[in-house]
Write a sequence for this structure.
């Protein structure tokens, strides 16, 4: 079974600074998807960014980018120019290629943004 | 992205009663829906996967007679917590996906409190 590990229960960053959230995963599969979800206090799950394992290029979405290291099974999220609205719980998630969209989540990292 | 609506947003029920939570896909046909449970400051725990027209597949340790899941149409899945007890109090989240989607979309969640 796949596992997803987020080793940072909490992180903090100053507004306008950059922060990196870590995620590692364990799998024997070669084809899969990785995701970062944001869960603000409203608790609505919001997709931040997605990475297909077959793509070597790291995904980016505006201020959010990932560092995907397939051999190391690492998938970190970098948030640039942090904003107060970025404060939330961030979950890393794994999905197998043919898993019917079943997600395996990490335990999450609570990000605080200081003004 | 596609819209998934979950209802109610919160519910309080008496111990021993049953409560139904609805999950609707508003603008796409959801062939697969997922139900998660989330305890405070914890990650999402998958309870079951439901495919339209089929019986739900429950994760290990989830009581299928306690958490009844019905996915009778391509736009609606329901989770019924039967004979609810205070320990069933939690945040329940659904997600849905369908043909052509590369991701699953989440509902807003339902906070259940059993008194």
């Amino acid at each position: 079974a796949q596992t997803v590990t987020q080793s940072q229960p909490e992180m903090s960053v100053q507004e306008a600074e950059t922060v990196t959230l870590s995620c590692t995963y364990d799998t024997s599969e070669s084809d899969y998807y990785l995701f970062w979800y944001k869960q603000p206090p409203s608790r609505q799950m919001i997709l931040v960014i997605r990475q297909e394992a077959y793509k070597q290029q790291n995904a980016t979405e505006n201020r959010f980018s990932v560092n995907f290291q397939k051999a190391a099974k690492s998938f970190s999220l970098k948030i640039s120019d942090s904003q107060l609205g970025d404060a939330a719980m961030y979950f890393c998630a794994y999905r197998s290629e043919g898993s019917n969209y079943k997600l395996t989540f990490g335990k999450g990292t609570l990000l605080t943004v200081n003004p | 992205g596609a819209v998934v609506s979950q209802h109610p947003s919160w519910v309080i029920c008496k111990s021993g009663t049953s409560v139904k939570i609805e999950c609707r896909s508003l603008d796409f046909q959801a062939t697969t829906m997922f139900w998660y449970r989330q305890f405070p400051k914890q990650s999402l725990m998958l309870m079951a996967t439901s495919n339209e027209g089929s019986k739900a597949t429950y994760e290990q340790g989830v009581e299928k007679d306690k958490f009844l899941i019905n996915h009778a149409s391509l736009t609606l899945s329901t989770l019924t917590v039967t004979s609810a007890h205070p320990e069933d109090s939690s945040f329940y989240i659904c997600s849905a996906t369908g043909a052509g989607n590369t991701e699953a979309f989440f509902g807003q969640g339902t906070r259940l409190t059993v008194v």
Q: What stands out?
A: Chain B touches chain A at residues 1, 32, 34, 38, 41-44, 46, 49, 51, 91, 93, 95, 97, 101-104, 106, 108-109 (CB under 8 Å).
